[in-house]
Amino acid sequence: MGKDKDGQALLPINTNDERYVAQANEFVEGRQNLKLNSAKIMRAVIMQINADDDDINGYTITIPELAAMLGIQPSNLYHEIDNITNDITSKAVEIKDRKSEKFVKFPWVKKCAYDPKVGLNVALNDEIKPFVLNLKSRAHYTQYQIQEILQLKSVYGIRIFELLEKEQYSTKIPPEGKDVELTIEQIRIACDCQNKYKKISQFNARVIDTAIKDIERVSNRRFICTYIKRGRSTYAINFHIIPWYYPYYDEKTRTILESPKFEVPSPVEKEYHVY
User: Measured between alpha carbons, how far is 65 from 41 in angstroms, rounded to an integer?
Assistant: First the structure.
């Protein structure tokens, strides 16, 4: 990794990079409200932290790298970058304190500045060190390669992808599929939409369906979502994750067309009651 004239580490955005975006699970579960491009940039910065690093540095994303990552022409970068720097510097990730059960705000950065001759310089906030450093010593953390989220077109897609990765434990999905259950509250907190889309039909259309279509568009995974009820209220969603090559999956309805040789969950309409 090269350095600029001030000694800051240069951030190479390489979609073939074998390094991982690694975050503590509390960080993944936290309330985040960055806009799409800002969210991608912060993941790219976190990716630069190596497993054996004992501190976090400032990183510079060069103009060609930044334009490639955001999918815009370098000449048009200036029009977007002011919004990105304002977004990153004004937002915080909110993490629930396990003792008090209250959310604590941690600003993402202590510095985020754009130099038209160099690129975007980002220095992470020291207070998020526990959530991105020395994670191998922790029992629970989430990691994935950045190319898995760079092509996503919605923040909801990024956040639900991260929640699913947190629960999956493995990127390998067996032919019969894998189940991941997320509560509605988990998703609302992570996507910062606790006060939006109060009706479950709105929540499904604007958050879940948007995210799932986004993830399916760029990945080898397909999903069947089963809503789980507690009494009369929807409590959670079971995501049945299927490899793209699964022969009995209907893309339009997200249902199983006929019974395969192995057992799979029934389609969306089935309800489970949890007491």
Answer: 11
